[in-house]
Design a protein that fits this description.
Length: about 300
């Protein structure tokens, strides 16, 4: 009976330790995969392995991060062919919550899944991402990272260094505030009403990027559109086309941990919009997800 009670306490301790790490693990898996459902599957598989192990619950974060990493690397190998055939720019599946649900803890780098960060991470190979995440976010030594990735510690050190260098070269982009998004909506509305691009253009950084993901399923820009004038005119043209054929509603939402927008045409979700801003607060990037496969999990709450 004593052994049974001890075993039960051990199971409870492992469950408690897992639940304490689950949020970070989901974000870690999402950073690899860009899919909410696939990230949830990977973390659930990691839990099953952890529950069946004799691993000390006090080391849950380090142990589970290694399991999640290997599970995600396996999934990325299977997804590689799909990514190579993808039509147009690829964006992650948006993680959408009700407006005002922005994560209160922004100090934990492991929780940052903003579109700006996710786009920057796409420049890294899966192994570079793994070396960076495990060492910098979970404090694993390069010996432990090498054991996980089946690479030498020196190779893992080099991969993490290349990853940091690549991320720095991407330039500083930040999550917008709700006020930033409200100014964009007001400027966009003024431009749409008058046909004058200046109210919108003055809110955009000179080198702003417009990234649109339709996945070949719906109409979307096949290349990134850059420059304030080009982006402002593109948005004006798109708004005119939408208004001519449907009733348009724009709803605030928390998208990937920051303020964003859900756009509906005739009460049907057409796309989500997320943003990055530069150090001066100008809109540095606009990320539009139109691929209907990536919008299935977007909540319908708040529909007028």
């Amino acid at each position: 009976m004593g052994d049974g009670a001890a075993e039960s306490r051990g199971e409870e301790a492992r469950l408690s330790a897992f639940l304490g790490e689950r949020k970070r693990l989901l974000r870690l898996a999402y950073r690899y995969l860009g899919s909410v459902s696939e990230a949830e599957d990977a973390v659930q598989d990691a839990w099953l392995r952890f529950a069946a192990s004799a691993e000390d619950p006090d080391h849950a974060g380090r142990y589970l991060s290694r399991i999640v990493t290997n599970l995600c690397l396996d999934r990325l190998k299977a997804a590689r062919a799909r990514r190579e055939r993808y039509v147009g720019p690829w964006l992650p599946e948006p993680l959408v919550e009700a407006a005002g649900a922005v994560e209160p803890d922004t100090s934990d780098a492991a929780l940052d899944i903003s579109f700006g960060v996710m786009r920057a991470l796409e420049r890294l190979s899966p192994l570079e991402r793994a070396a960076l995440f495990l060492h910098d976010l979970y404090d694993l030594s390069f010996e432990e990272v090498g054991e996980t990735l089946k690479r030498s510690p020196a190779a893992c050190r080099q991969m993490a260094s290349r990853a940091r260098r690549s991320l720095r070269q991407g330039g500083a982009r930040f999550q917008p505030s709700e006020a930033d998004v409200a100014r964009f909506v007001a400027g966009f509305a003024e431009t749409a009403r008058t046909g004058d691009v200046e109210p919108l253009k003055k809110l955009l950084a000179a080198d702003v990027d417009f990234v649109s993901d339709g996945g070949g399923k719906v109409t979307a820009a096949l290349n990134v559109v850059s420059g304030a004038d080009k982006v402002a005119r593109l948005l004006l043209g798109l708004s005119r086309k939408s208004a001519a054929r449907a009733s348009v509603s724009i709803l605030p939402a928390a998208i990937n941990g920051g303020p964003g927008l859900i756009v509906r045409l005739d009460r049907r979700i057409d796309h989500t919009m997320a943003f990055s801003v530069d150090g001066a607060g100008a809109i540095a990037a606009i990320y539009v997800v139109r691929n209907p496969d990536k919008l299935r999990a977007v909540p319908q709450a708040g529909e007028p």
